[in-house]
Amino acid sequence: MTVLCSAGPSKFAAALVLWVGGVCLGTCALAQTKPAAAAASVLASTNLAPVRFLVVAAQESILSASVAGRIAKVPVGLGDSVRAGQVVASFDCAEMQARRGAVRAEHEAARVQYEAKQKLQGLQSAAEVEVELAAANVNKAQSQVHIFDAQVAQCVIVAPFAGKVARVHVKVGQGVNPGAPVVELVGSGPLKARMNVPSQWLAWLKAGDKLDGKVDETGGTVALRVTRIAARVDAVSQTVEIETELASTTGQVLPGMSGQVRAPSAL
User: Fold this and answer.
1) What is the SS3 assignment for 29?
2) CA distance 172 to 168
3) Facing residues of 73 across strands?
4) Is 238 left (phi over 0), alpha (psi -120 to 50) or beta?
5) Spelled out in words, what is the top-level CATH class assigned to the domain 190-261?
6) Over the stretch 136-185, which tens digit does the pLDDT of each residue have?
7) Which of 7, 60, 82, 259 could form a disulfide with 159 if both were Cys (CB 3.0 to 4.6 A apart)?
8) Rounded Cα–Cα distance for residues 7 and 14 (Å)
9) pLDDT in tens, 82-91
């Protein structure tokens, strides 16, 4: 005999449900809990799915040319360690240095002429306007010297921080234009890892939490400590970007390596 479940207030219907020995009652309960169970299953699968992370250096930079010129020296090579302020490349700036020398000579001549005008003014042999014009010529020449000093200083490229050479883009004798990449550096400081995690993780994730990950290239394990959490969730992917530091590692880990991390199994 088939008995249909009823959600009405009739006592007869309630008695009929009980009379079938709980079969219909269990079926109704199962039907009502299916949507909740499905949602819980999706949430659980989202939390347990692996998340990709990318290892990045705390400091990294592509050093580019500020002036057009020809590369004269590249004293560093791939993988070399450099210190802050060390020259990593230099240009052939002989012509610019010669121009700077000429401008300095003009500045010296303007200064001598100004001093002479001042002496003549004291002897009432030079007008005040002549002295002022001589002073203006000194200031103009001094400005030209500063311009060429700045241009000559750009003939060398120095490391802004201590680190290692990740790539060398130029060779000795090569001509480059302003903005052309010359040397890539990665800092020697602690490494970081960035990833986009499901927004549901925000229910428990906070700065200072630790996540266990595995590096694809080496198979080594890493312990990641959460340091930063983005201020908004991506509306399309429903993920939030986080930044972590590598608290501990097994094996070598380099910038650019990637891996996977999962939410703690206890959650």
Assistant:
1) helix
2) 11
3) 90
4) left
5) mainly beta
6) 998 999 998 998 888 888 889 999 999 999 999 999 999 999 999 999 99
7) 82
8) 8
9) 999 999 999 9
Structure tokens at 151: 């241009």
- As given in the structure block, the two tokens for residue 32 are 């009502």
Alpha-carbon gap, residue 51 to 142, rounded angstroms: 60
Interatomic CA distance for residues 200 and 91, integer angstroms: 53
Mapped onto helix, strand or coil, the DSSP state of residue 129 is: helix
In this prediction, residue 22 carries a pLDDT of: 45
- Cα separation, 259 vs 225, in Å, equals 15
Answer yes or no: is pLDDT of 56 > 60: yes
Q: What is the mean pLDDT of residues 37-61?
A: 72
Predicted structure pTM score: 0.63
Write down the domain spans for the chain: 61-186, 190-261
Write the single-letter amino acid at 105: A
Distance of alpha carbon 144 from alpha carbon 194, whole angstroms: 47
Neighbour tally for 168: CB within 10 Å: 17
- Locus of tokens 């009739």: 10
> Residue 4 pLDDT > 70, yes or no?
no
- The CATH number corresponding to 61-186 among 3.90.870.40, 3.30.390.30, 2.40.50.100, 1.10.10.10 equals 2.40.50.100
The single-letter code of the amino acid at 220 is: G
Report which residue type is found at 165.
V
Q: Which residues contact 57 (CB under 8 A, 6 or more apart)?
A: 163, 186, 187, 189, 191, 192, 255
Which helix (H) or strand (E) segment is 249 a member of?
strand 239-249
Q: Which two tokens stand for residue 258?
A: 């990637």
Length of the chain, please?
Answer: 267
Read off the tokens for 234.
Answer: 């991506």
The first and second tokens of residue 80, run together, are: 């070399």
